[in-house]
Write a structure and sequence with these properties.
Shape: elongated
CATH topology: Methane Monooxygenase Hydroxylase, Chain G, domain 1
Helix content: over 70%
CATH class: Mainly Alpha
Number of domains: 1
CATH architecture: Up-down Bundle
Distance between the termini: 37 Å
Largest sheet: none
């Protein structure tokens, strides 16, 4: 479980790094890559459904903010 949690955090960090760099397209691609990983965490019971949804929602909101 620790390695899976670490992998999910790494994908989220990649998305946050792209957002910090102001690269909307790279951030969108990173979020697309992170989404199935996060959903898998819910399936495996490591993250709760709402936690996963909250992470994805917050990342998507930040991406929309830099895109506009």
């Amino acid at each position: 479980n620790a390695s899976l949690r670490s992998r999910a955090r790494t994908y989220v960090k990649k998305t946050l790094a792209a957002i910090a760099a102001g690269e909307a397209q790279a951030a969108t691609d990173a979020l697309r890559a992170a989404t199935p990983i996060l959903d898998g965490m819910v399936t495996k019971g490591i993250y709760k459904k709402n936690k996963c949804a909250r992470i994805k929602s917050r990342l998507n909101a930040r991406i929309k903010a830099i895109a506009s």
